[in-house]
Write a structure and sequence with these properties.
The chain is of the alpha+beta class. It has helices at 3-8, 19-22, 25-34, 41-48, 55-64, 84-94, 96-101, 104-131, 145-153, 165-170, 201-213, 235-243, 268-272, 297-301; strands at residues 39-40, 68-73, 76-81, 141-142, 160-162, 180-182, 197-198, 217-220, 225-229, 254-258, 278-281, 284-287, 307-311.
Length: 313
């Protein structure tokens, strides 16, 4: 059943039992009609008028839900079906209860597929970024809180906030989800799809401080977003582990230095570290430098300044 939809929408085996959860009946019919073709808006209206009472409203909804993508062709914005990979994030972000209702073992299988596809897709983009630093991959750098605040100050327009797609899909922790700060408002951006809560620059900076204090690391490529990440859900970090890109993606810009003598064993660093670099043994804090990714969140949150961040060579 739905073999054509599975093919056109590129639905992996792990998710095929849930086609009707991810797509409405009208969307299934639309995918069947459209296939892999691209349509001008007026032509798509004609194609869909037999299945949607209001084709314009239906197209806007399907685009918002990540079922349709816009494409710019011959100087005109046209539409084509997206795919399951694109739809999954929007589904988990904006229909969280329906996503959570899928049995855990099946969600985990879909999540594992998603990480693998993302990791393999990142390989060539990361290689391009290595050769040409201007070709930045998303979440390119770990940045300090102060650097992230500075990025916000330099924005030409106010940013907006969306739920973190990584935390929404993975559901591996209960860290705050409404923390992704986006700048991009172009074609197929979340803003273009009708999502996002507008933020003033001051609100964005307050959100960054809140995230940092609550154990979320700041990553950015300085152009499109500042992500507030955790190591258990973040797809760039999980993908980086898979393809052996630690230190390169997100790029490590700082080395963490721990002053053992100044440390008062409050263990805040143990609680806040995402990578187990700070740990406790027999009531004492110790630092496993080999586990550190250089995110710098520990230095910002140490109450006695026993941890510092030094520029990596």
């Amino acid at each position: 059943m739905y073999e054509d939809v599975i093919a056109y929408f590129e639905i992996p085996e792990e998710a095929r039992a849930y086609v009707t959860e991810f797509l409405s009946g009208e969307e299934i019919a639309a995918v069947q009609k459209m296939g892999k073709n691209t349509y001008a808006t007026k032509d798509l209206h004609v194609l869909l008028e037999s299945l949607a009472a209001d084709p314009e409203k239906f197209i806007a909804s399907a685009h918002s839900r990540g079922v349709f993508n816009k494409v710019e062709k011959d100087g005109e914005v046209k539409y084509q079906t997206a795919n399951f990979y694109r739809r999954l994030a929007f589904f988990a972000q904006y229909e969280p209860d329906t996503w959570a209702a899928i049995p855990r073992e099946h969600r985990e299988a879909i999540d594992a597929w998603y990480v693998n596809v993302y990791a393999e897709g990142a390989r060539p983009r990361l290689e391009a970024a290595r050769k040409d630093p201007s070709q930045l991959i998303e979440n390119a750098y770990f940045v300090t809180l102060e650097e992230a605040l500075g990025v916000v100050d330099k924005l030409e327009h106010d940013p907006y906030m969306v739920p973190c797609n990584c935390k929404s899909v993975a559901m591996n922790c209960d860290r705050p989800r409404n923390v992704c700060i986006l700048f991009d408002k172009g074609l197929n951006s979340e803003w273009d799809r009708g999502h996002g809560q507008p933020l003033t620059k001051e609100e964005a900076k307050e959100l960054l401080r809140f995230a940092n204090k609550n154990g979320l690391m700041q990553t950015s490529e300085l152009r499109h977003a500042i992500c507030n990440c955790d190591a258990c859900c973040c797809y760039p970090i999980r993908a980086s582990r898979k393809i052996g890109a630690r230190g390169l993606w997100p790029k490590r810009l700082y080395n963490v230095v721990w002053d053992k003598e100044r440390c008062v064993n409050c263990k805040k660093c143990v609680r806040i570290c995402n990578f187990g670099a700070f740990a406790e043994k027999e009531g004492k804090v110790f630092f496993e430098e080999k586990n550190c990714w250089g995110c710098t969140i520990c230095s910002r949150n140490c109450p006695v300044k026993a941890i510092s961040a030094e520029k990596a060579g």
